[in-house]
Write a structure and sequence with these properties.
mainly alpha, globular
């Protein structure tokens, strides 16, 4: 048992060093307000999609909270300053920034260090691709179904009075409202706050990874993982039977499933391609549960049952379709 604990500790320390560094850097970027600097992307996106100017404001707000951004959209819809089609596309666009924010706070900080550069990197690329597909959908549908003159006329009326530009209404797109002034933080202060804020998250991740690493090593040594040879799911999707446990855990908790799958990859218990198959298969089961548990209450409480349910279905369908496409390609390749 002692040798098992020492091996678990060795695997955990080497991986968690990278996790700690990435978590610290992500927290530092948040403290230095680095994420908000991409707000310049909103202006051309709004112009291309023919959405009103308020959509640019809510897109910037969604960098911090998609729920807060959608609340603004819902209010404008209720006041008649946005059409339902504009509100729908704006809400879909507000769900995009989270994919890019998680690239730093989740993918680079946790997924890639645990799963490795190939599996973790592919997992991150698939996540970013989902966000880009949602964004492309908004740009394409907006340009096709929202006339440019409607966007221009509704732009100034949809902004709150204090944000309405003083320039002529003939301008194609009013400038983005300035972000509220914030005190400039020096690097030392930001580093201290990042260290304090990320320490609790790091300890939780490290503890979970240690437990899962010990579990997979123990189950492998006892031969328990090899006892699932007749599991129909493994045979149908051509995944190793020992991955059924991390697959099942992933559906309930992606972080726990990834923490359990990481040691399997590092110890050679599963190939990188098979690991990706497990992740994609787990996502097909996990995403609908996540949507019911998290997205449905948020969207329906803000937009009402009909529009909120439509947003949940479309958002979930896009995510599932991306994972299903990747899964099929992996199965064909193997």
């Amino acid at each position: 048992m002692l040798d098992l604990l020492l091996q678990t500790l060795d695997d955990t320390v080497s991986t968690m060093i990278t996790v700690f560094i990435m978590l610290f850097l992500a927290g530092l970027m948040v403290e230095m307000n680095a994420f908000s600097r991409i707000n310049h992307l909103a202006k051309p996106l709004i112009s291309i999609s023919h959405l009103p100017a308020v959509s640019a404001s809510t897109f910037v707000i969604s960098l911090g909270s998609a729920l807060a951004a959608n609340t603004v959209i819902a209010r404008m819809l209720a006041e008649g300053q946005l059409t339902e089609r504009q509100a729908f596309l704006s809400a879909i666009m507000n769900s995009v920034p989270v994919y890019f924010r998680e690239l730093f706070t989740y993918q680079l900080a946790f997924v890639i260090p645990v799963l490795g550069i190939y599996v973790g990197g592919a997992y991150a690329v698939i996540s970013i691709a989902t966000g880009l597909i949602k964004l492309a959908l908004v740009l394409g549908l907006g340009r096709a179904y929202l006339p440019a003159d409607l966007s221009a006329s509704s732009a100034s009326s949809s902004l709150p009075p204090q944000l309405t530009p003083s320039s002529s209404s003939a301008a194609p797109l009013p400038p983005l409202p300035p972000l509220p002034p914030q005190a400039r933080k020096n690097l030392r202060e930001a580093a201290k706050k990042s260290l304090r804020g990320q320490s609790r998250i790091f300890l939780r991740i490290a503890g979970l990874y240690f437990i899962m690493t010990f579990l997979v090593l123990y189950l492998s040594r006892e031969g328990i993982l090899q006892s699932f040879d007749v599991v129909p799911l493994a045979n149908f999707f051509a995944v190793p039977p020992e991955t059924i446990i991390p697959l099942t855990i992933y559906v309930a908790s992606p972080k726990a499933g990834i923490a359990l799958l990481g040691p399997l990859i590092q110890n050679g218990g599963i190939s990188e391609t098979k690991a990706l198959i497990v992740l994609m298969l787990g996502s097909l089961f996990m995403l609908p549960f996540y949507s019911l548990r998290s997205l449905l209450p948020n969207y329906t409480s803000v937009f009402g049952m009909r529009l909120g349910l439509s947003l949940v279905i479309i958002s979930t369908a896009i995510s599932v379709a991306v994972r299903m496409s990747v899964l099929l390609m992996l199965l064909i390749a193997t």
